[in-house]
Amino acid sequence: MTGSADRGASTGRPERGAEGGDRRAGGEGTGDRRAVVAKRVDAGDADLTEITRLAEAAGYEVVGGLTQTRTEDAAFMFGEGKVAELRDLVRERDAGCVVIDNDVGPYQTFNIGGKLPEGVEVIDRFTLILEIFGQRANTRKAQLQVELAELRYELPRAEAKASLAKRDERPGFMGLGEYDESVERDIKRQISEIRDELESIAEKEQARREQRRDSGFDLVALAGYTNAGKSTLMRQLAAELDVDENEDRHPDLARTAESEDMLFTTLGTTTRRAEMEKRDVLLTDTVGFIADLPHWLVESFESTLDSVYRADLVLLVVDASEPVPEMREKLVTSHDTLYERNEAPIVTVFNKVDRLDPGELADKRAALSGLAPDPVAVSARTGAGVAELRDRVEDELPEWERERLMLPVSDDAMSLVSWIHDHAHVDEETYAEDQVTLAFEAKPSIVSRARSKAAELVPASST
Ligand SMILES: Nc1nc2c(ncn2[C@@H]2O[C@H](COP(=O)(O)OP(=O)(O)OP(=O)(O)O)[C@@H](O)[C@H]2O)c(=O)[nH]1
Ligand SMILES: [Mg+2]
Questions:
Q1: Are residues 108 and 142 in the same domain?
Q2: Is 173 left (phi over 0), alpha (psi -120 to 50) or beta?
Q3: 252-288 pLDDT, tens per residue?
Q4: 354 CB less than 6 Å from ligand 1?
Q5: Does the residue 169 lie in any domain?
Q6: What distance in angstroms lies between residue 199's CA and the mean position of ligand 2's atoms?
Q7: Residues 271, 387: one domain?
Q8: To pair with 332 at 20 to 30 A between CA atoms, which of 93, 118, 354, 460?
Q9: Does ligand 1 come within 6 angstroms of the Cβ of 232?
Q10: Domain presence at residue 343
Q11: Are 145 and 303 contacting, i.e. CB atoms less than 8 angstroms apart?
């Protein structure tokens, strides 16, 4: 695996001098991956489950946790007493890093770091997610998206530092040494360059989607919260063949959609041909959703989700083995992510039903009927319900038209016959002496192309 130090260098992020102002997790080389997780909530009980799983996904060993319920402290996020507790816990557990599941501002990060033992890193939820994405980004597009997100994370911080340094005439503020305003300009320039490149990749992908539709394929996308079981379901529904012509894919990459009991296993998109009765379906698996992401991070990864937004049908996968409140929260996050840009009908899939008894399933259906009307229950692990899901996909896809064509028996007509076989579902093919009758069903666009191709044939054959 490429160390994040390498990757950092390739982003061209501003140099921070040898004194090491960079307090972010250093990846390989720093050695210490023991982390304490912490979270503050305004009310109720803070839950450390997700941040722990995220930290583990990034390769940390979580050795302690700490929560606090109180309003945000402007300087320290937590109360100062809690920060002292945090320091003691870090010492006791010999942790090298503190992961905070809150939107920690740059000054708060700096202040908390100042109270911790020397060399202990402070990172927040977003930096952690970026770190995971950075470790797993394996296509040019994914790398660009990570770089974009990193730069967008950096920008307000650079702005703040520049203006503070100017106002206070403290060029050494936060140990940055000589801070140059040009850093800010540099970040903005890089952001715009990356955006341009991402846009041109997105245009190519859009062209490819159109080409696939023209060839008679319906495009179905898997969406859902991270770890819902999208990639596992992909394997149930699709042939092993990977149809992504990913020119820039890293050579040593496995070309299958990987599944692991870990958050954000899948980052890039994988497209495979699904095995359906009638329809030719291309199924795309992609990055999972997660709650509480700032808009800049979501936007940086937006083009990853284009295959979802522009699909003909979306399968929204939900882990139904979780308690109803969690399912509800994750459904809401998923709908929020889809809401603004999605154009396709959505079928909700309750996955992991092998872990439920029938009574529980019925209760969950009832409790969530508002958010998930008429879900299909499956187990991507055992394959239960997958046949029903296939039927449902075919039912929900845009209607096909029926057509019946009578063609002359000629070479040109025969190549049209084979074109129709490739692009449509042929119900009947009968040969009489000098003509062939073809009855088929296909997308409206395919039917009209077949008609016009047939119309071109007739004059030649009638001579
Ligand atoms: N018991 C059970 N486990 C499942 C089922 N489907 C998936 N899993 C497990 O759930 C975990 C996550 O599955 P993935 O397919 O990687 O989930 P994903 O939605 O692709 O996750 P990301 O790529 O991280 O967004 C893995 O450990 C799977 O083995 C299921 O039907 N039953
Ligand atoms: Mg996956």
A1: no
A2: beta
A3: 334 455 777 878 887 778 889 987 888 889 999 988 8
A4: yes
A5: yes
A6: 24
A7: yes
A8: 354
A9: yes
A10: yes
A11: yes
Return d(Cα 219, Cα 310) in angstroms, integer. 8
Question: Which of 97, 114, 136 lies at the terminal end of a domain, its last residue?
Answer: 136
> DSSP secondary structure string, 387-415?
HHHHHHHHHHSPPPEEEEEEEESSHHHHH
Atom of ligand 1 nearest to the CA of 380: 31
Rounded CA separation 93/36 (Å):
8
15 lines ligand 1 (CB under 6 A): no
Judged against a pLDDT cut of 90, whether residue 330 lies above it is answered with yes
Instruction: Say how far apart CA 136 and CA 263 lie, in whole Å.
Output: 12
Is the CB of residue 260 below 6 angstroms from any atom belonging to ligand 1?
Answer: yes
Tell whether 273 and 355 lie within a shared domain.
yes
**In this structure, is residue 16 part of a structural domain?**
no
The answer on 367 and 276 residing in a single domain is yes
Out of 214, 241, 266, a domain closes at 214
Q: For the chain, what is the largest distance between any 2 Cα atoms, rounded to a whole number of angstroms?
A: 96
| Residue in this structure with the two tokens 């730069």, named with its chain if needed | 151
Give residues whose Cβ lies within 5 Å of ion ligand 2.
230-231, 265-266
What pLDDT digit, counting tens, does each position of 1-25 carry? 333 333 333 333 333 333 333 333 3
* Helix and strand counts by DSSP (H, E) for the chain: 15, 14
Q: What is the residue range of 425's domain? A: 401-461
pLDDT winner (highest mean) among 58-67, 206-215, 392-401: 58-67
Q: How far is the CA of 379 from the centre of ligand 1 (A)?
A: 10
Share of the chain above pLDDT 70, in %: 84
Question: For the segment 51-67, what is each residue's pLDDT rounded down to a tens digit?
Answer: 999 999 999 999 999 99
Domain-embedded: residue 184? yes
Average pLDDT, the chain: 83
Q: Kindly give the pairing relationship between strand 346-351 and strand 376-377.
A: parallel
Would you list which residues are annotated within the binding site for GTP?
A: 224-231, 285-288, 351-354, 379-381
CA of 272 to the centre of ligand 2 (A): 14
**Residue 181 burial by Cβ neighbours in a 10 Å radius (0-12, 13-18, 19+):** middle
Are residues 326 and 247 part of one domain?
yes
Read off the CATH number of the domain in which 422 is found.
Answer: 3.30.70
